[in-house]
Amino acid sequence: MLGTEISVYLWHEVPEEAQELVEAVFAETARIDELMSTYKVSSRITVVNEFAAERPVDAGRELYDLIERSLDVSVLTHGAFDITYESVGQHYDFRERVRPDAETIERERERIDYRLVELDSGSNSVRFSKPGVRINLGGIAKGYVVERGIDILRRRGVTNAIVTAGGDSRLLGDRRGRPFMVGIRDPRVEGEVAISVPLENEAISTSGDYERYFEQDGVRYHHIIQPSTGKPAAGVHSATVIGPDAVMTDALSTSVFVMGVDRGLRLIAGLPDYESIVIDEDGQIYYSDGLAPPE
Ligand code: ADP
Ligand code: MG
What we know:
By secondary structure, this protein is α+β, with helices and mostly antiparallel strands. It has helices at 15-36, 44-51, 61-76, 86-89, 102-109, 141-155, 246-269; strands spanning 6-10, 57-58, 117-120, 125-128, 161-165, 168-172, 180-185, 193-199, 203-208, 213-216, 219-222, 225-226, 231-232, 236-243, 275-280, 285-287. The protein has a seven-stranded antiparallel sheet with strand order 1-5-6-9-14-15-16. Strands 2-4-3 form a three-stranded antiparallel sheet, covered by helices on one side. A two-stranded antiparallel ribbon has the order 7-8.
């Protein structure tokens, strides 16, 4: 679901009830996918994309709220995180090795600007102030899904669990008395872990240029777009963000990836609850101030 793999780990005394809880998380994931997937012709976000340049479109409270949070992150990151990246992003198909030509990028780039998205909270409506603008919540929706999943488990009495969607995980409690060890992938060696971090009760998100990409003439075209150029962001291989809220760690990991090591770590330094680990294109690992690098 959501173009990725969803997994649920939990501790429970009664296997049947545990199974039921896992199913409940999957059902919630499917519901959110139905609302927020740009691949579904009937999803609410598809309707927004189709008509919001013509008239305000009622997005419904839930989708509206996540769009609003996305725009807040755009302000926070000075536009590094921008859901209107999709204006160009829609022209990529990583599975089919399709990418936009220079002319298309030039034309659509003018439609990447979060300020073109106008919100009306009274009616939950979204309007685009320019034709051709498109939005995509791919950089934040998985964080939302894992946050919702953990919510379901917590409300039903679970105290130790992990919900993961692709590169985004939310942990509930610990590994029964010990921290969970969460591995950050080596961005270039499949199946290898670059660093393991002990964590409990936190969210961790990693954005990488290895999740969705293809190579052509020695260039890697991947799925994280630099809004200012309309092209895949260069310089970083993976960006990880750790903190209390998965919606934020998801959006911030994409943001740090786009901003690069220096600007990215400076952003995180200004957010006391969040830490970051960045692996650059030379394989060098950088840590935010709150994380002591391993000896
Ligand atoms: P993953 O876990 O799939 O690596 P990320 O959290 O890094 O995910 O999100 C990547 C996704 O974010 C892309 O597939 C795309 O949908 C969306 N995206 C790409 N560039 C941007 C951007 N500059 N701002 C916001 N969202 C983006
Ligand atoms: Mg992200």
